Amino acid sequence: MDRAAAFAALEAHRVEIASRRTVDFFAEDPQRFAHFSVRLDDLLYDYSKNRLTRATLGHLFDLARAARLEERREALFSGEKINNTEARPALHMALRNFSGAAVRVDGADVMPAVEAERAKVAAFARAVREGAIRGARGEAFTDVVNIGIGGSDLGPAMAARALSPFASPELTAHFVSNVDGADIADTLAGLDPARTLFIVSSKTFTTQETMANAASARAWIAQALGEAAVADHFAAVSTKLDKVAAFGIRPDRVFGFWDWVGGRYSMWSAIGLSLAIAIGPEHFEDFLRGGHDVDEHFRSAPLSHNIPVLMGLIGVWHRNIWGFAAQAVIPYDQRLARFPAYLQQLDMESNGKGVLRDGASSPRATGPIVFGEPGTNSQHAFFQLLHQGTEVVPVDFLIAAEPTEADDKHHVLLFANCIAQSEAFLRGRSEKEVREILRAQGLNSAQIDELAPHKVFSGDRPSSTLLYRQLTPRALGRIVALYEHKVFVQSVIWDINPFDQWGVELGKELCSRLAPLVADASADLSGLDGSTGGLIAARRALLPG
Ligand code: G6Q
């Protein structure tokens, strides 16, 4: 069976089950929760609240086989150059490999270099935390500012917030990314230069935003402490060591990684240095081990018990067969507040592609629009649309069984809210139920007729839940790696390359062309389109003088 036939079989199957409701599936199979959930140690993936049956899964596994998912997974892990447009492997799994097995790129084992860099990151993190490495005036560092953007920012920033209970109380990690000068100005406002360490994180060490912020940070240190202090207050993480040297960062403060690590997959590398300093090298290693747990699971579990495979295939079922265009991710975990933003990049930059690996146009929809905010806040904001809007948006709920350094009473309410929402999405509320409720409240029939349609919930809005024991470094590593592999699974089904990002390049290119025209008030705008030239001219008119 080829992909097209597998998709056609799924379409036909949808028609067959379209009149059935997920609540009926629960009624028919009292063991549905057990049958449609998978555990990985103390992590549980419950997908029973999606409108699917065993037959659906059978068709989805046929599709996975038609796309040669298992073969492609092996190609990923064995270091084939699956990032075909950049002729590179995608081996971020090597960064969290603790199996003792070699990982080869072009025949050479990369593990010795990975382990050496990991040890260097740990030693530096430890020295900063213990005050063995100090600023130019001999003071211990109290603040670490990571300067980076996209893949060199979102992962560590998300994780530092998620794991704040594990962080040293003596050190605060800050993240500056936007070229908007307000970002660095607001960050530096409360900081003492003598106690601040900057980490310039950039794979290419050419990214405009990061270079502009690094230059401002450098000037801030030089002005406060003198030019000679710069070397003591900067470290860098990059694959381009020559460019780092030119910036003036001491060679022993430079941490490397490799071109087979994509930016949005790089938080496991030295790009995680700010996180390692914040939470300590032991916790950082636990985070890596969480990622490794999932690599082993993804590589070896049969398709039917493989969490990233199930997550990916259910996403395809929703995206392509039901036509749901978006995916919400709702952590009921305030410390995962930046997780949706992190996931937006991981998913949308990876699978937001319109062409297949061979360059032909994709015959079907690819990556969904990913968005989210923590619960319960999001319940009081956009959940209205999720419950009663005209778009059906599948939801991933994330929640811990127990809180990390938070009040248990709050957590009971948090948990109850989370499952109340997924229950409401599943069951909805029929017109008959609404009418009974309104009658019991004493409304007359005219009032009931008027109100009832507004209070009906269709239900059958799909959701899955990831339940983990506690938001520890290891649990976070597992959650992140689950989503990484889910995105990979979908890319295989859609036959696209998830490891390039040409869409990001065009904006960078055009900005370099426009910046001089914005800077120079007398520059000729005649070659530009009316709106672009018009906006530059309007800005000129609004500026003082
Ligand atoms: C990620 C993307 C992109 C990248 C940033 C920063 O996969 O490639 O988000 O991480 O543009 O790039 P540098 O690390 O090279 O500064």
Question: Would you kindly provide a written description of the structure presented here, covering whatever features stand out?
Answer:
This protein is an alpha/beta fold. It has three domains: 3-66 and 301-427 and 461-500, Rossmann fold, CATH 3.40.50.10490; 105-285, Glucose-6-phosphate isomerase like protein, domain 1 (Rossmann fold), CATH 3.40.50.10490; 503-542. Helices cover 49% and strands 11% of the residues. The chain contains 22 helices and 13 strands. The strands form three sheets. The protein has a six-stranded mixed sheet, sandwiched between helices. A five-stranded parallel sheet has the order 6-5-7-8-9, with helices on both faces. It has a two-stranded antiparallel ribbon with strand order 3-4. Strand 5, helix 7 (154-162) and strand 6 (172-176) form a beta-alpha-beta unit. The longest helix has 22 residues, at 473-494. It binds glucose-6-phosphate. Glucose-6-phosphate (G6Q) is lined by residues 149-152, 202-204, 207, 210, 262-264, 349, 501, 504. Glucose-6-phosphate binds at residues 149-152, 202-204, 207, 210, 262-264, 349, 501, 504.
